[in-house]
Structure formats: structure tokens, C-alpha cells
């Protein structure tokens, strides 16, 4: 009886462990989303390049912030894809050589969490900065009122506070292990 139970339990545990592969299509979906972000980045670049000589300094800064925003979102996707796959599904089984990012294979769940929140805070901060800069444009200022700016600031501060609290929790946890 005990042997049958151990066999059932072992099969169940192997099946449960194998279920991690259900995450693989999700990481493939993130790779597709990265490709989509690349297309949007190139579309933005192609849109603004012909206008380059007509752009004011403020408009060029907004273009740069838009491109930085897209790049940070792409970095975020890459970090989640690589470290999430390696943490939860399987290690990469090929030699990537010198091209391998320094953090790859070294980011644990806590590190991933901190990179995620840092990226979200940076993206939120850039979005907020873009909105502040757009206020100087009278057409945008009338469309984008005080209430919207208030909520953007509140949301950004929420991300910042969440990041600080996560870092504090990780620090306390690390300290408790020592």
C-alpha cells in the first residue's frame, strides 16, 4: 500500500514539475511582444526623421523620451524573458559566448523583482516628464487637465513607494538570513 502511494505521489510530483513548461509559450509571446515593440520603435523613428530639421528642442526632447520609453519597455521584456525562463522553466543549454549579458543566469527572483520595479518607475517617470513638457503646448494643456496630471503624479509616486518598500523588504529578508 505504501509503495503504491509513493508511486502515485512520485508521478504526481513529476507531472507537477513538468507543468512549468506551460510557461514556455508565455515567454515566446514576450519575444513576439519584443518584436512588436521594435516595429513601433522603428515606426516612431521613421515618422520623426523627415521632420528633424523642423523640430524645436522641446519637441526633439519629447521624441527622445518616447524612444527611451520604448527602449526601457523592451529592456524590461528582455529581463523578464531571460531571467523568468531561467528561474522558472529551464536553464539555457547553449553556449552564448561573449555576447551573453553579464546579468544573465545571475538574476534571482528578488533581483528580477527589483529590476522590474526600477524599470516601471523609470518608464512612469519618463511618461510623467513627457506630460509635464507637453503642458507648455496650449492645445495639449487644454486636453490634459489638472486632474490627469494629479493622477499621473499619484501613480508615479505609488510606483516609487512600492519600489522602496520592496527594496526594504528584500534588505530585511537578507538581514534576517545573516
UniProtKB/TrEMBL annotation:
Task: Indicate whether Cell membrane appears among the record's keywords.
Answer: yes
| Annotated keywords | Cell membrane, Membrane, Transmembrane, Transmembrane helix
Predominant place of localization: membrane
GO cellular component term, pick one: plasma membrane
List locations, semicolon-separated: Cell membrane
Residue stretches spanning the membrane: 21-41, 61-82, 112-129, 149-172
Which Pfam families is this protein grouped with?
Answer: UPF0114
Its family remark reads: Belongs to the UPF0114 family.
PANTHER family recorded:
UPF0114 PROTEIN YQHA
Identify this protein by name: UPF0114 protein EI545_13205
Please report the organism this UniProt entry assigns to the protein. Answer: Tabrizicola piscis
